[in-house]
Amino acid sequence: MSLDTPRTETSAERLTAHEARQRLEHERASRLTQLRAIGEAGTGAEEQSMSAHKDTIRRVLAEVDAAFVRLQDGSYGICRSCSKPIPVERLEILPYTSFCVPCQRSAA
Description:
The protein is 59% helix and 0% strand. The protein is mostly helical. It has one domain: DksA, coiled-coil domain (Four Helix Bundle (Hemerythrin (Met), subunit A)), CATH 1.20.120.910.
């Protein structure tokens, strides 16, 4: 099934708060590890590329933090644009996303 195919989800097909929290914590830890590795790399000709990579990682960390807030307020897994549930497959791949695939595509 495609990630942008809408379907009716049962509670068994939704991520539990515990599962979502675990995925978000893993995502945060991975990104922080990447930032540390970049910081430990030497400077040189690749400095501009490293800076852009750091900015991307920091943006994702901000999205992860926002996802934790949505988890707390009960809006996690609901598209911020169309208010429909985000397919669990998409949340498994991108646990911090706040948009379903169709809405993400139309925003791009």
